Amino acid sequence: KQEVTQIPAALSVPEGENLVLNCSFTDSAIYNLQWFRQDPGKGLTSLLLIQSSQREQTSGRLNASLDKSSGRSTLYIAASQPGDSATYLCAVQTGTYKYIFGTGTRLKVLA
Amino acid sequence: DAGVTQSPTHLIKTRGQHVTLRCSPISGHKSVSWYQQVLGQGPQFIFQYYEKEERGRGNFPDRFSARQFPNYSSELNVNALLLGDSALYLCASSLLIQASGANVLTFGAGSRLTVL
User: What is the pLDDT of residue B100?
Assistant: First the structure.
């Protein structure tokens, strides 16, 4: 049974810091991994998608890596800003259509 | 181009009642998935529909049902509501990348259900 874990559960950093969010999964048989951002009470916004054959993806200040063999992904945020404050969720696609989500990392960037 | 739209955005029901939630996918997307997100948790998979057929079902009781219409919009129905059904219900439409099998999800803003 696939399980997805995110560490840390919460993180508070001063503005400008580079930070790393971690995601681990127990079964390496995945189609892809997606990172999402969720603002309080809102839906999910897709940040990055890494297909199973890829090692990393970059978008602006965000970089996500995937190591299927070790069951790990990291989301790197460079030069953090207060507007980055949100919950970050990783999800792995198992089977053709189903995603398993982690419980998220609540990030607060202090001005 | 409109994103995934969900209605209603908020609703309050009492135990035992029935609720219908609606979702319109992104134009051109034929796949719709439903997820339940309880406060403080990650979303949990409920259903996935593709081309009007159920393709996947999560570990939810039979009180939960869904359907997809010819225009690819979808409804999620929950009968005999329990307090524990209070959650944010998220709909996602997706475009299947045929070569890899990757299914890229785009979520709506959700319907927040409170059961009293």
Answer: 59
pLDDT in tens, A80-109: 999 999 999 999 998 777 899 999 999 999
**Measured between alpha carbons, how far is B63 from B78 in angstroms, rounded to an integer?**
5
Q: Is the Cβ pair B112, A41 closer than 8 Å?
A: yes
Kindly report the average pLDDT of chain B as a whole number: 92
Which contacts qualify for A15-18: CB closer than 8 Å, 24 or more apart? A15/A80, A15/A81, A15/A82, A15/A109, A15/A110, A15/A111, A16/A79, A16/A80, A17/A79, A17/A80, A17/A109, A18/A76, A18/A77, A18/A78, A18/A79, A18/A80
Contact A99 B101 (CB under 8 A): no
Token pair belonging to B59: 């570990």
* Reported confidence tier of residue B104, pLDDT bands at 50, 70, 90: confident
Q: Residue B99 pLDDT more than 60?
A: no
| B residues 65-104 closer than 8 Å to A (CB) | 88, 90, 92, 94, 96-97, 100-104
